[in-house]
Amino acid sequence: MVFSTIAFLFQFLPIFLLAYYATPQKYRNITLVIGSLVFYAIGSGWYTLLLLLSLLINYGLSRMISGTHARHPESAKHYLIAGLIYNFGLLVVFKYTNFLIGNLNSLLSIFHTAIPKVSLVMPLGISFFTFQITSYLIDVYTGKTRPARSILDLGVYLCMFPQLISGPICMYSEIQPQLKNRRVDVRLLEEGMETFVLGLSAKTLLANPMGGLWNNLSVIGYDSISTPYAWLGAFAYSFQIYFDFSGYSMMAIGVGKMLGFQLPQNFNLPYMSGTAGEFWRRWHITLGRWFKNYIYFPLGGSRVGKWKTMRNMLAVWAFTGLWHGASWNFVLWGLIFFVLLTLEKNVYGKFLERTHLLKHAYIIFIIPLTWMVFAIPDMHQLGTYFTRLFPFLTSDEVQSNTRDAVQAFHNYWKILVPCVLFSTPLPLMYYKKFRKSGFCLLLLLILFVLSIRAMMTQTNNPFLYFQF
């Protein structure tokens, strides 16, 4: 179920909140888990059983890891390995089977044979809840956190519907203190509703219209667009994916507050960065934290010399690319960031840090290009798009008529301008300053009404990160 739908806002959420608030505090975790499973079942059907199976298996493994670690550390290690194989095995089967078969068929084509692809539908949120439950197992093994006292506690951590499908990716140590000692008061409820409305408006009033510009460009065909239109499309997709995912994260954090939980921040104005490294410290913060804690640091981080540090970064970015999707464009996208971060670290990073305008111009130029690699899975089409962005890359004649870009800008400038503005710190600064004023509350009400209107009229309302 998508947060930005009438069904969620006026059916599921109010019914669930009434049941949740009516439940005595010591039983609210039961209500939360049941409601979360219903939420997941609405969108995923029988895959809810798979989620429950993961909960049962990982709970049992964590108890066995904790119980044997002191006396039989080798057994604890085997239990951890079993958990990693199970969790990542499910992810590989559902997300990467056909990708692996397709690549194997490319090799088998010389023998004029092929393996049939498998008809599999990827469970919603499997990339997110796999990383979340795996971090729990590893932290129990390393002693960073104690195992869940009950399967209900772990169920809340794994299944809590605000962050189940698209994060933020939480650590058990963040949620564990809140499992028993949380209260819902008027202040948290108010803050949660405000945060939810801001996220909802970012999704419906900014991301979706920008998605319309990008979709229109894609329908026309990349070989038929002018260079200005190609650049406009790159910026449109950059805004779409930012306000789509950051909007979802805000809604998740807002609903979490309504339930008494403080979920971790996932975005911090990434387009205000001055380097690609800083961009990734501000974008999808909880995913970057996961790769740092469970891939980069265990490999030695930056403490193992220059070349091994580069190896560690390569591993992180190869996995980051693959995590986002089973396609070679995602692998290429991850490797591009590896190259950018390596160059910043060893070549021009210090120079960028000493500048102001230049480093921001660098991000404004480079990040939309990386998003094009992310957005276009077909390598031939990707190459065509880049020849439109940079006509000198091809000897073919590229359309010089810029009327397509002029028409698109005329249609979308009223959305482009707010997208630029809300990518800066100014709106947040003024929101915090005047948050308690009547004007601000009126503005939030207007944004909510406009969002409802948009949800009733827009035909394109998917969350991009649901597919990852």
UniProtKB/TrEMBL annotation:
Keywords attached to this entry: Acyltransferase, Cell membrane, Membrane, Transferase, Transmembrane, Transmembrane helix
A Pfam family annotated for this UniProt entry: MBOAT
Membrane topology of the entry: Multi-pass membrane protein
Protein name per the record: MBOAT family protein
Annotated InterPro entries: Ac/AlaTfrase_AlgI/DltB, AlgI, MB_O-acyltransferase, MBOAT_fam
Gene Ontology biological-process entries: alginic acid biosynthetic process
Transmembrane segments: 6-23, 30-59, 79-97, 118-138, 150-173, 314-341, 361-379, 438-456
Protein's cellular compartments: Cell membrane
Naturally occurring in which organism (per UniProt): Ruminococcus callidus ATCC 27760
